[in-house]
Amino acid sequence: MNAIAERFARLAREDPGRPLIHLASSHRTLNASSLWDAHLAHGLHLASLGVRSGDIVLIASGNRASTVALMLATWAMDAAVMPVDAGTPRPEIDDLAARFHASVIAVSAEAVAQHYPDAHALDDQLSLVRREDSAPPSDQTRGAAVFKVTSGSTALPKAVIVPDAQILADTDHIVEAMGIRPVDTQVAAIPLSHAYGFGNLIMPMLLNGTPIVLRESFVPQHLPADARRFGARIFHGVPFMFQYFVANPPAEGWPACLQWLISAGAPLESETVNAFHRAFGVKIHSFYGTSEAGGICFDRSDEIDRTPTVGWPLPGVTVRLLPGDGIPDGCGQIHIRSSAVARGYVGETDSTDAFTDGGFLTGDYGSFLPDGRLALAGRISAFINVAGRKVHPGDVERVLQSIDGITEARVIVAADAVRGEQIAAVLAGGRGLSQTDVRRYCASRLAPYKIPRIVVFVDAMPLTARGKTDHRALEALVAAHRLAGGSGVL
């Protein structure tokens, strides 16, 4: 049995009545015993579909209690969990399942009605889809606890192999740094499929018995009432959630119980921290991590200052700043060493440039302040960070270039006051197409956060004197488009 499942088994034996998942919308609470029973039932379903040790179960079922029980059931069989956003379109889910040879796909009842009529019902929330072309387990993936899907440097998604030992270590680092206690209750407003939600919500619950308040999606109008109802102390969010509450203060004020606020997934600007503190008297604490390295830094200080940082390295984590081409003076590329660093990427048996020197070399660069806090200064990689989700431009460009009439597509980053960054697309050709046509096409093939919010049509791509795409000209086109009110044609 997987080490995570073993830890939860001990918790269920010692405290079977312990409340773990408060289902806010249905007014039900699952305790350790009921979650244990659900995982046993799910395990029987997996076994009936032929799931065995070393297989991969792709889970795209969203923030549901059954999602957690299915993860437990998968780990108990020494199979691997691959969490994927529930809003991911079927073509992208099927492509991920085929690329990584998943044996089963778990989807919600809504997805079954639309896309998977032959699925096997798991319960009233989830169904399982058996795939016949799954590959036999390999030595590389056997025994891995979770595969975290992340954008790859080649624009194709990669799966990060994180064995159970690394997950246990990462949970210990996060819990110690943030002071997450079994007596606390956490609001689960972020996706459980995201590395942030998985590491900060699911794992403290399963390993230490810290309950969560669960809804299927972030509903800002309900969050304060949910926190009061269940006495929640901790809220893990992303910057745009906190910005929403600054702009739309709760009618009854900020819940007095909800005092430990943590933000990750995208850079947290000091303006947001200051505005929230002025409005509600509570500080938002920055958390920094990656799918490959787990938790890296956390700002545990209650002081409000003007220097945006991600705080100090977590216990058990060593952060080094390495020199590199194109990195500003006084900064270095961030390298991580800890017992939580992942094994590598699925399908890449050789050591990569990222997993080097006994750790992981991130795509970020930064500097240390005199007090030891880390300040992020920029990103070396080409990723676009949309509300905490990394998007490689090439991933979107492939879809755009498959549209009839589009001769060339380029995707760049544009600033967004709410999401931090957003996706802008410049398309050559496409006469007769509108922004709505492009977005509708993308919606059937890409996850919602990957759909371009800005679409600009041009006759031909701007080129430099050397014949390469002129990225500064692309940025100017997008800026002019926004100033013109977004007509879509320049």
Write structural notes for this entry.
The chain folds into 2 domains: 3-378, ANL, N-terminal domain (Rossmann fold), CATH 3.40.50; 384-483, GMP Synthetase, Chain A, domain 3 (2-Layer Sandwich), CATH 3.30.300.30. The strands form 6 sheets. It has a 9-stranded mixed beta sheet, with helices on both faces. The chain starts with a helix and ends in a 7-residue tail after the last helix. It is of the alpha/beta class and 490 residues long. It has helices at residues 3-14, 32-48, 65-76, 90-99, 109-115, 164-178, 195-208, 223-230, 239-247, 270-280, 393-400, 435-443, 471-483; strands at 19-23, 28-31, 56-60, 80-83, 104-108, 120-121, 126-130, 144-151, 157-163, 186-188, 212-214, 234-237, 260-263, 284-290, 294-298, 312-313, 318-322, 332-337, 344-345, 360-368, 374-379, 384-386, 389-391, 406-416, 420-429, 454-458.
